[in-house]
């Protein structure tokens, strides 16, 4: 679907006409990310991160396929083969640092993309499916990142694998069998390493497939925008190309500057020293922490310390999974007719002064040494996290009085004398 | 319906975590956490700088050559360097012939081509640095159950990196007189005792290190370039050498980084100008209300 | 970029149709696109060169072989750069046979002297790689088929090599390759 005024692809010569008849791939691209896709003209830079996430996925697949040419997934030699890549393979150090830091930058842009969606309520009708697919992508990327971190077979790799599969051991009755089944043994070893490698290779391509569905679903209603008011007329939109290709090109430049600065000058800053020690099943590192992008969820896991009806461990595992799975229900938990946080005074306050500090505190506590203070902080933040999404959001969406919305996107950009609409969610113009 | 279930679920999780919070806080308030000596008297690595530090840093090959001598004469008695090959020494500024000669000074396990028996033979450039012990069990048995770690990646495998290695080598102290932040160890913890076979070193996480002070006297090794081999000098040189063994490609990385960043900056500026002029057609000055 | 200038004006727009302005705008877009293209090409370099032999592979490039135990008429197999290496000590009769072969009858004309070292004319060192498609010829071990010319015989496609490792019959285009080697002592050769 697209807007009536969307430009149509016109093959210019015999060859493109022939291709268009046999396989209209250029037409598809033209309509997806070309001049044939009308996009609200008022998108801000927060709308850059979808394209950047796609770029990061491509980057990880390219560097990952190359690393797989040199890496050996065997517990005896995995660590040594990683060092072989770093020392002997031509540009191997670059490939590995690009892949390791690429994972971090992938999560940076994914998180910013998600925060954009949360603040502007991009998950609301008619875009629920885009959001649901996005959560699926996030889960896939998390699983891929976790398994990738195991591959170098350092101390953190090994103990991370042990601790995370140990989570499944919390499930009553069948937990331990599941853990043994996941690992193919009683502790992480060759069987686990090989299956993690296999899945680590597979899942990015599954992710790429879901990304295509995500973009497909996006093109049904079209992009949302910072006002949350739907597109009404042609003057509300500009063609994706050249306007947003140019803007995304600039955004990509900024992304690459930050990324290369890390890869070339601080390649181990986001890593952990213990992972340069080969896996040793007989000695646990002093402080097992996952990579930074898992810290908030790790803090939620560690926050539950008391056997309240269920064992504390089970609470932690349930809460950690619930903290992400609850995102699947967001479109139905938040019933406010207004999308954008700009026009929702109460929502805005809870977002900036509740949710953001809460996530930051969780992130800090998840990465810090366990101490009474960090545990207490993560407990309060975990409580707020669940209250925010499951209690506060449904309630404020009923009691909040939204601010007046601009009549249209064009009016929001240009200013208008037309009467603003109070909290009305206009349907898209077709 | 979703919202009612959601609110109930949210309240259940909140209740569970707040009960944990309450129980923890109560127990923290009623029981005093015991401060440990390692928490209190552990010292952060010294502030020492190396020529290869920072985005413009480069290896000082003279220093690395001196560090190699320290590793060979001292550290290699107990510590392996298994990810480094003799051919890598060419990075330190040695010629091919010199590398061959340096390698030949080491004995590595080989196979007698006639009998197939294991024999020791002179190393070749393609060989890796040999381990001083045939296996971990032998290493542990020879060292009071503490296996001397491989040093190839040591400066990357410890928080604090090369300054940590330097601090550890120069930081052995007498616990009887040791004080930190103006507080004497034995005054705060009169029962503090260094276990038999261990050595007091405040830079080590638990203060007691299984390694005896390895560098003890000035002139313990002889430097060919005439530098005086003080303990501080040897420690610094070997720390630099171990930075190199941990990442021999560091120079390449930094030297590639600058042109890459410069080019991306240039391309980004062009992308910005291009974006600006493309949008100039539709980005009007905002009309005042 | 052409459509840029024909862009239907949306809202209030600033129209800049002065000719110089158009040229400058095009120039910036082309420069930005070219910079992206150059960057993408530059990235290809490490992506491609990572597949070339790594440093440890390049370093393993010499092999020492003790040849003292090879009796005349015998041959041994060793490994050089992960490929088979044939070392054969020729009998006097074989040397005579090789030298008596008319050079004109050879597909790849080389004398035995071209293929052995001064003072060690009886020692023939060749790669054990058939020059046709890379199979390992037979003829090293006792009892193996040595082909019609008493040298080496490649069973894959029937190439026959003579006692000097020269191609005599079959599809192979050239003689078995003689690698670079020298004697480091009376009994040991270093290949590579």
UniProtKB/TrEMBL annotation, chain A:
InterPro entries: Cyt_b/b6_C (IPR005798), Cyt_b/b6_C_sf (IPR036150), Cyt_b/b6_N (IPR005797), Cytb/b6-like_sf (IPR027387), Cytochrome_b (IPR030689), Cytochrome_b_C_euk/bac (IPR048260), Cytochrome_b_N_euk/bac (IPR048259), Di-haem_cyt_TM (IPR016174). GO terms for biological process: respiratory electron transport chain. It is found in: Membrane. Heme b b562 binds at residues 99, 200. Gene3D superfamilies: Cytochrome Bc1 Complex, Chain C. Binds 2 heme groups non-covalently. Heme b b566 binds at residues 113, 214. Coiled coil: none annotated. Residues 15-227 form the Cytochrome b/b6 N-terminal region profile domain. Its cofactor is heme; heme b. CDD domains: cytochrome_b_C, Cytochrome_b_N. Residues 230-407 form the Cytochrome b/b6 C-terminal region profile domain. It is a multi-pass membrane protein. A ubiquinone binds at residue 219. One of its GO terms (molecular function) is metal ion binding. GO terms for cellular component: respiratory chain complex III. Keywords: Electron transport, Heme, Iron, Membrane, Metal-binding, Respiratory chain, Transmembrane, Transmembrane helix, Transport. The chain crosses the membrane at residues 49-73, 93-118, 130-151, 163-184, 196-217, 250-270, 312-330, 350-370, 376-396. Belongs to the cytochrome b family. Component of the ubiquinol-cytochrome c reductase complex (complex III or cytochrome b-c1 complex), which is a respiratory chain that generates an electrochemical potential coupled to ATP synthesis. The main subunits of complex b-c1 are: cytochrome b, cytochrome c1 and the Rieske protein. This is Cytochrome b.
From TrEMBL, chain B:
One of its GO terms (cellular component) is membrane. It holds the Pfam family Cytochrom_C1. SUPFAM superfamilies: Cytochrome c. Signal peptide: none annotated. It is found in: Membrane. Binds 1 heme c group covalently per subunit. One of its GO terms (molecular function) is electron transfer activity. Its cofactor is heme c. Keywords: Heme, Iron, Membrane, Metal-binding, Transmembrane, Transmembrane helix. The chain crosses the membrane at residues 256-273. Its main location: membrane. The keyword Iron applies. Heme c binds at residues 75, 78-79, 211. Gene3D superfamilies: Cytochrome c-like domain, Cytochrome c1, transmembrane anchor, C-terminal. The keyword Metal-binding applies. This is Cytochrome c1. It comes from Parapontixanthobacter aurantiacus.
UniProtKB/TrEMBL annotation, chain C:
It comes from the Bacteria. It is an enzyme of class 7 (translocase). Binds 1 [2Fe-2S] cluster per subunit. Its EC number is 7.1.1.8. It catalyses: a quinol + 2 Fe(III)-[cytochrome c](out) = a quinone + 2 Fe(II)-[cytochrome c](out) + 2 H(+)(out). GO terms for molecular function: 2 iron, 2 sulfur cluster binding; metal ion binding; quinol-cytochrome-c reductase activity. InterPro entries: Rieske_2Fe-2S, Rieske_2Fe-2S_sf, Rieske_Fe-S_prot, Rieske_Fe-S_prot_C, Ubiq_cytC_Rdtase_Fe-S_su_TAT, Ubiquinol_cyt_c_Rdtase_Fe-S-su. Gene3D superfamilies: Rieske [2Fe-2S] iron-sulphur domain, Single helix bin. It is found in: Cell membrane. Keywords: 2Fe-2S, Cell membrane, Disulfide bond, Electron transport, Iron, Iron-sulfur, Membrane, Metal-binding, Translocase, Transmembrane, Transmembrane helix, Transport. The chain crosses the membrane at residues 27-48. Belongs to the Rieske iron-sulfur protein family. The Rieske protein is a high potential 2Fe-2S protein. The main subunits of complex b-c1 are: cytochrome b, cytochrome c1 and the Rieske protein. This is Ubiquinol-cytochrome c reductase iron-sulfur subunit. It comes from Parapontixanthobacter aurantiacus.
